[in-house]
Amino acid sequence: MRRRDWGVVRRWAHRVARRDGIIASLLLALAVLIFYWPITLAGHWMPSGGGDLVSFLWPTYRFAARSLRQGVIPLWNPYLYSGVPFVADNQAGLFYPVNLALFLLLGDPSYRMMEALVMAHVWWAGLGFYRLARPEGGRWGALVGAVAFAFSDLFIVHFGNLNLVAVAAWLPWLFLGLRRALPWGRPWRERISAALSSGLVLGLATLAGHAQMSLYLALAAGLYALYMAGERLRHRDGREALAVLALLAATGLVGAGVAAVALLPTLEMLTFTGRAALPYEEAARYALPWPALTGFLAPGLFGRGPARFWGPWDRVETGYLGVLPLLLALWGAMPDWRPGRRRPSPFLTSLPTGFLLLLLSLALLLGLGPHTPVHRWAYDLLPGFRSVRAPARLVLLADFALALLAVRGLGRLLSPLSRRERRRLTSWLIGAGGLGVVGLLLLARTYQAVVAARPETRTPDHLMGAWWAGMTFALLWGAGMELLILRRQGLLSPRRLGPIALILTFTDLTILGSAVDVEVNDPTVGFQHPAVVAFLRQDPALFRIEGDAGAWQPDAALVHGLY
Q1: What is the mean pLDDT of residues 249-257?
Q2: Distance CA 100, CA 105 (A)
Q3: Which of 242, 286, 487, 492 is 20 to 30 A (C-alpha) from 46?
């Protein structure tokens, strides 16, 4: 084919990819609007009680917006105690470009606008995942993975932590660049450009204002680089291994440089706070207990959401991303023996299965906190782990790995199945059926063990909830098995399998997760006291405000400008 003909083909491929990306972004936007129907259709609020979104982030953002529109960079917050550095507050998110656009263009954000920002970042997480997974899973495989990741448990539990969601949403975009930078064989200019763009993404994520999630993004990136360097050392290519580490260093330097305007004041302020070095007992709080791992199978076994959770441990995220994606991930983790797939190409269009399994294992071991020695090792040896707690949030990385493995599994099912592949799938389906039975027995045994240890939790409501959770898991696992069996028998074409898998995954996540953290009353009512505000403004003396948090929000002075 002549060069001119190649140019025509390339332009056609770019047009198709652009149109495909637009369609996917619209489908994901529709999915977000439907998933958050309590807000978009019913007119309710999220999360229940408002959480940090109403008590901390909304007042913080309103203060920042008001200051910037007055031409003042808010270096200082005079409305908290005797005043505190505002820019040095890691969670202020003052220099995050999305926040800056909001503050400067739209004025004081309403609470509805804060909810919209959370939903927009969930959409951004899904879109980034789609872009990352599209080369391997095709349109439908990437959409299933994007839905599973964007509506996984961390994003549901932390709707009220806008800054946490914002940082987490950049994880797929970070790996979109790293996937082009770290694998060997690409032109150096392309690899360097990808490494620098990855650094830009890491810096932007850090500016969103949640140090713990930025630490976890950096941890995942570092693990990927070490894995790729190890692969080159295994092939006795030490020069390329050093190049991988150098590209990672470039990513880190660019990220630190982009975020320096917020990072440097935060690091200086850190030395004056208790976060400088938390005791290990505090750093290990809000970890995953062993029974909570059943949440990957049935999130409602011990109740879900602040109103229904009854487990005898702190409520934490448990990593649920749907039953079908979990089933597909098991298939995706199997070795791929299709023709041309036996040897990994140096031009990797996907993340290696070995790395994804390593990331999944490490995230779970760290997320278990004091229940394994791994978290203590990280606390002692890795920078940053002494200043953060709630290791259960590492399920973000576990879900990321599982969702990518699910994409890989579905992508293989959407491809033509050879006779050998059908035989392997038959054997695997028998094993998967057995795993489903084991999973159901594990749910029952875990419930029995918990209520035996805490007899006061043995109530009819809890028993009924656990029974429904187990039956839901069995139904969804059976439905997923049926899809795979039909595909194995040739009774379900790839053209139909993809949409059905997407609908089943989205229905599963929406029914079980969309309404677990809903508030029917306006969360901002604790700020709505015009008579009290008017009285305080008429008092020229300095005073301290003490109040009941249920009636008067602690950060109300920040909203109304009272001190």
Answers
A1: 97
A2: 8
A3: 286
The tokens 């991930």 sit on which residue?
A: 329
Residue-by-residue DSSP string for 371-411: GSHHHHHHHHHSTTGGG---GGGGHHHHHHHHHHHHHHHHH
Indicate the pLDDT class of residue 554, thresholds 50, 70 and 90. Answer: confident
Nearest to 155 by CA among 143, 140, 170, 144: 170
Residue 398 has a CB neighbour count (10 Å cut-off) of 25
Q: Is the peptide bond before 47 cis (omega within 30 degrees of 0)?
A: yes
* CA 490 – CA 252 distance, rounded (Å): 48
CA separation for the pair 457, 448 (Å, rounded): 10
Report DSSP state, residue 334.
S
Give me the mean pLDDT over the 192-205 stretch: 97
**Length of the chain, please?**
563
Mean pLDDT of 543-561: 78
pLDDT of residue 344: 45
Q: Looking at residue 451, what DSSP letter applies? A: H
For the segment 83-104, the average pLDDT, to the nearest whole number, is: 93
Distance CA 506, CA 508 (A): 5
pTM of this structure: 0.94
Q: Which long-range contacts (CB under 8 A, 24 or more apart) does 64-70 make?
A: 64/92, 64/93, 64/94, 64/99, 64/103, 65/102, 65/103, 65/104, 65/106, 65/107, 65/108, 65/109, 66/108, 66/561, 68/100, 68/103, 68/104, 69/103, 69/104, 69/107
